[in-house]
Amino acid sequence: MEVKLGLVQMRMAEDRQKNLSKASRLVGAAARGGAQVVCLPELFDVPYFPQEEGSSVAPERLPNDATLTLSEAARENEVVLVGGSLYERSGRKAYNTSTVYDERGRTLGSYRKVHIPQDPGFYEQDYFSPGDGYRVFETTYGRIGVLICFDQWYPEAARANRLLGAEMVFYPTAIGTVKGVGQVEGDWRQAWEAVQRGHAIANGLVVAAVNRVGIEKETTFWGGSFVYDQFGTLLARADSRERVLFATCDTELGRDVERGWGFLRNRRPSTYRGLVGSP
To answer: Is 4 a catalytic residue?
Structure first.
């Protein structure tokens, strides 16, 4: 089955309501461009507050006005919508949470970010508790997995989604360069894209990463949203401008890759016990 994706690469304002309105408008633009599944960036309703160790931004209980906006955007545009992520409060904890909607605006469920970074410019452990597992959502257009930003660096997360039946994995993201922090290891953007291309190939998954753009205080978000197919062919890549990126993928290709290469059927789980230990 051919599925058209729309990745909303956004610039965020200080005004939260402006961000919600813009997100809704761009979901509409994606739908008018033929997208059937649309995805927003990480923490799309606010500036990226975790670049500071102390912020006045407070988590909110879900559902809230943001989830209502997302639900209405999905329903009005008749698209499956991966709602980027939101700063959620639940009990005494806070999470970085993505909510997913079907084309009638019904909530299919949510995913809480599992891997939480703590680095200069990305002080997320000051704000978020880790989620406790992975979820795959059954939609009209196939089984969709959602992972969030730092989850991108972990092959285990992508593999877990594939074993749960995902055919496509979306990564709402907020990544860029931080003033005063050198890329001493090498080019961050190249590594960011390369590791996810590997996830696509190793798991026979469509991988779609959706980044934000613009300069927010000390951080320059580089955009560069992209889609790779199930054997690592680049289907689309954005530049650093605010836009909707479109890509059409064939969900059958993942089955063809598995039939031909057998990456899953030739697994040897009994040899992987060391993966769950401490380094």
So the answer is: no
